[in-house]
Write a structure and sequence with these properties.
The chain contains 18 helices and eleven strands. By secondary structure, it is of the alpha/beta class. The strands form two sheets. The chain has a seven-stranded parallel beta sheet, sandwiched between helices. The protein has a four-stranded mixed beta sheet with strand order 8-11-10-9. It is globular, with a radius of gyration of 23 Å.
Length: 421
């Protein structure tokens, strides 16, 4: 779900060079919505200089570099960039100048893997000549290679996760050398720590550090912007409901292992968030009324016609940071937010709760985290796997056992029919 990243960059980063900026000081570590809604700079002179370098052809060699291009997400970003963003880039240049092609490159630790993923993209996208794309070797543990990578591009797309382990050196380098940065992180601790540590330096260099530009959390963050713009007056509450549909004819894991790994350590280190937020947001938000009613942890919502649980992802965290920007910087009334995830039946909801309890307990201990990483297919009932082939037999056995238990104890006859169908 990283597709919004490239289009978002092509349409907004480059437009920022030609739009007059406000002299008002603003945060340069921003959420997707606050960046799209309005482009500001602490120094308009920096943007003028950048625009002149773009016209004259001086400055960085590339418009965009995809870091981690050989990974699970990177390969999709490459194909989307080739299919869509290059054309968008040509169109937005206008007819008063000779159009130039988007200059981009891929980066990662292994040159052979980068070449392989480009070749794969050329098979999936007719007409794409992978041989003209430059390969950049870079390792987050090597500051020299990081500097060489970020100084070659105007915008860096960072697809290397989990960001808790590998994201900070990249953010630090981009803030230091004035390279715009975008990632797809759904890790609140990482996102908020980076804002706390590098916002001032990024602002001084006229650099934007933009997090959460993928599935986490473009739909929810952009969604609340649409809600605000669509209402005649101030908005009091927003509730989001996530529904995930998996094609039945496509067997295999449904969650990327790096995403799963991020969840393990995010849950294990959840206590880190409180002191980070206290330092980042010392001023409390106002007490809003009417209060958003607190829904039961497990509830059936007739509006979405599903059983629901609180969504444990980063959506609410990202949306609330946007609300803080609206309140502290634009003096606008903040909104109360609730985020939930939908499930197809009560049985699936109970299964998720049981898996979540085991996951939560094990994630709190080093040995438990090790086991969760070693056997992801077992502990997620096949939703995550390091391998292409998962554990369908174990899953079916577990489903059968649970169907018997629920049928005997709860005596819910319709549940048995659903499970065995």
């Amino acid at each position: 779900m990283t597709f919004p990243v490239s289009r978002y960059l092509a349409l907004k980063i480059y437009q920022s060079y030609t739009k007059q900026s406000s002299n008002k000081q603003r945060s340069h570590y921003v959420e997707p919505s606050s960046f799209i809604t309005s482009i500001f700079s602490s120094s308009f002179k920096k943007w003028q200089d950048t625009a002149l370098r773009m016209v004259s052809g001086s400055g960085p060699t590339f418009d965009i570099v995809i870091f981690g291009a050989s990974g699970y997400t990177g390969q999709y970003v490459i194909e989307y960039l080739v299919r869509n963003v290059e054309d968008d880039f040509k169109k937005q240049q206008g007819s008063d100048q000779e159009p130039r092609k988007l200059k981009w490159a891929v980066a990662g630790r292994n040159k052979d893997k980068l070449a392989k993923v480009l070749m794969s993209a050329s098979l999936n996208v007719p007409g794409f000549d992978h041989s003209i794309i430059e390969l950049i070797v870079c390792d987050v543990k090597d500051e020299t290679s990081l500097k060489k990578m970020v100084t070659q591009t105007k915008v860096l797309l960072n697809c290397v996760g989990p960001y808790r382990f590998s994201g900070e050196p990249v953010v630090k380098a981009c803030a230091q050398y004035g390279t715009h940065y975008v990632d797809i992180s759904g890790e609140p601790q990482f996102l908020e720590t980076m804002q706390l540590k590098y916002n001032d330096q990024a602002a001084q260099n006229g650099t934007y550090i933009v997090g959460s530009c993928g599935f986490d959390s473009i739909p929810s963050d952009m969604g609340q912007v649409v809600v605000h713009r669509s209402m005649d007056g101030p908005v009091n509450t927003i509730e989001t409901y996530l529904k995930v549909d998996t094609p039945s004819d496509e067997p295999g894991p449904t969650i990327n292992f790096a995403t799963y790994q991020s969840a393990i350590y995010g849950y294990a280190m959840a206590d880190e968030l409180k002191p980070i937020r206290k330092a980042l947001f010392p001023q409390r938000l106002p007490n809003l009324k009417p209060k958003l009613p607190k829904r039961p942890a497990v509830h059936s919502n007739p509006l979405v016609k599903s059983w629901c649980l609180p969504f444990p992802g980063s959506d609410r965290s990202v949306m609330m940071r946007t609300q803080r920007g609206r309140y502290h910087e634009e003096n606008k009334r903040p909104v109360q937010i609730g985020s939930y995830v939908q499930f197809s039946s009560l049985f699936v909801t109970i299964m998720v709760i049981l898996v979540g309890i085991v996951f939560g307990v094990m994630a709190k201990f080093a040995l438990g985290r090790k086991l969760l990483e070693m056997f992801p297919g077992f502990f997620t009932l096949g939703a995550v796997s390091k391998q292409v082939c998962i554990l369908p037999f174990i899953i079916n056995i577990l489903k059968f056992i649970f169907s018997l238990i629920l049928d005997r104890v709860l005596r819910v006859e319709w549940l048995k029919i659903r499970i065995l169908s």
